[in-house]
Amino acid sequence: MRKIALATMTVAATAALLLSGCSQRADTGGGTEEGGGFAADSLIGVALPDATSENWKIAIDQFDTALTEAGFESTVVGAAATNTVADQQAQIESMITSGAKVIVIGAKDAKQLGTQLQAAADEGITIIAYDRLLEGSENVGYYVAFDNFKVGELQGQALLDGLAEKFPDKTAYNVELFSGDPGDPNAGVFFDGAMSILQPKIDDGTLTVVSGQTSVEQTATTDWAAENAQTRMDTLLIDYAGLELDGVLAPNDNLARAVLQSVADDGRGGIVVTGQDSETASIPLIMSGEQYMTIYKDTRKLIAQTVSMIEALAAGETPETTAEENNESIDVPTYYLDPVVVTAKNAKEAYADNEELLALTN
User: Fold this and answer.
1) Coil, strand, or helix at residue 151?
2) 250 secondary structure, DSSP code
3) Cross-strand partners of 295
4) Which structural domain range is residue 37 located in?
């Protein structure tokens, strides 16, 4: 329970700052004091999804430290979301009832919080979408994330590069495709980015998806759960009797490891598998060649950018943004950070400023 409270405090603090800043825009609701800015002791709410990847755990642990070092004080209400949408809805409602000025949300399901976002707007609370875009609501002030379409592009290109590198004598390859949880808007963006690279190669015969499953709906992995990915891979391999499997597009490291386990259980190996998140369990696999690549999305940088936005909002200034992202209702001012593709060849360079990850490359 203490860890949950700390996680909430950390994320909440960030949220408050971010959200109050969003209210600088005339159409995003309140959260700031007249004339701009907000009080350092305002009530702040932060709601994050269940920790399906290490990056969420890192965010929970590091938000409070970053905000404290920036000089912010906050009162926190709520806790990091558990495993259901209803939990997160209730947590956000509690933050609203308790008088939060700002709420930062990493959504469990981006399409099922409309009622809560409207209730927040009715109370003059500003909302900031963190890492995942909140969809179908005009009550979103800002969005801060890594460029998720680019993540998918990097994964798609890495799959092609890995296949050419691993199988230099081949000109055509058998592959399978995986995507993430349908409730996570990033899952479709990752997949679309990857398919922008892979679809032309499917069309010209360079890649064959033996299962024929090439849509985001067909390839989805409920809850980003490793067991669901492994079960699906087990089923797909039934059709590979007498066929070689050369590669798999896996959207994150957790699912990549599940795919690799399934392939190993089937007596296969040496395939090219993509990933994302630079999880500690996957980096040794990348260095050994079992997993071809991952994506490094440095959560520390995402938190630092969030704090920077919060500082601007607290000062009554408009935070820097790099794009606008349509959420099916409005164009949300967005700050995108650049992801980094990591293979065994560049891992030491990519992780040079992260001692924990760098140590795993040895």
Assistant:
1) helix
2) -
3) 341
4) 2-140+298-337
Q: Could you report the per-residue pLDDT of 164-216, keeping only the tens digit for each?
A: 999 999 999 999 999 999 988 899 999 999 999 999 999 999 999 999 999 99
Structural domain count of the chain: 2
**Are 50 and 83 in contact, with CB atoms under 8 Å apart?**
yes
Q: Is 35 exposed, middle or buried (0-12, 13-18, 19+ CB in 10 A)?
A: exposed
Q: Do residues 346 and 333 both lie within one domain?
A: no
Backbone angles phi, psi at 200, to 5 degrees: -60, -35
Q: Identify whether residues 124 and 259 lie together within a single domain.
A: no
pTM: 0.80
Per-residue burial over 222-235, b if 16 or more Cβ lie within 10 Å, else e, is ebbebebbbebbee
Whether residues 353 and 248 fall in one domain: yes
Comparing 20-24, 90-94, 291-295, the range with the smallest average pLDDT is: 20-24
The first and second tokens of residue 114, run together, are 């409309």
CATH number at residue 163: 3.40.50.2300
Question: 32 — phi, psi (to 5°)?
Answer: -115, 160
176 in the same domain as 278: yes
Distance CA 194, CA 202 (A): 12
Q: What are all long-range contacts of 84-88, with beta carbons under 8 Å and residues at least 24 apart? A: 84/108, 85/109, 85/112, 85/113, 85/183, 88/47, 88/49, 88/113
